[in-house]
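Changelog entry: the Bis(5'-nucleosyl)-tetraphosphatase PrpE [asymmetrical] record was regenerated in this release. Current contents:
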Amino acid sequence: MKIDIIGDIHGCFEEFRKLTKQLGYSWDSGIPVHPSNRILAFVGDLTDRGPASLKVIEAVYELVLKQKALYSPGNHCNKLYRYFQGNKVQIKHGLETTVAEYEALPAREQKKVRKKFIDLYEQAPLYQTTDDGKLIIAHAGIRGDYIGKFNDRVKTFVLYGDITGAKHPDGTPERLDWAKSYTGELWIVYGHTPVPEARKVNHTYNIDTGCVFGGKLSGLRYPEMELVDVPSTMPYIAEKFRTVFD
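Regenerated structure tokens:
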């Protein structure tokens, strides 16, 4: 199985388009299709903060439906799902950009986008286990002893990382570097924590290189384990990148 795994897009549709073209995909049909039948996979956080979240939703929905692409939701996906369900959520931390796009649509188009995203989210597993179990794709990663489990504790870890409950002085949650203690042989590919360069630790790869914060959008070719990236068009915000882990 040959898969191209895409890091956190966060509404950066043009960078997504450029990256898939660089990976050899053609957009002639309106969605990226590879001539050698490689498939795309997504580590979650498709939306929020970037300029074109709804276009990303449309593309990934079509890819999952028609090309059997793999998608696992991130914490921003979870929040948007709850918003579309009518739950009370705080429209901030990036969600406000997606909501503004959504509210600018005619009512009929709103209904279509909402249904597509809800369908996409509800059919997605909490994390993907593929290639006969040799590859795990999970938004914020997953501890080795959690693989194969789907309880609330695992869900919190997969969506938010190894959070301690404490906060840094700037208000961001304290997260432990779970990848350093991972000793398994399965590959775990994840995002969630923006890093300046894709980060390989043991049999894990963090491929969130902060596209929406002016870094780049990264993809990982599997099983080749080759990294490909395109630069962001967004302003660079240095403080959003993690270089030192707790």
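The chain is about 30% helix and 20% strand.
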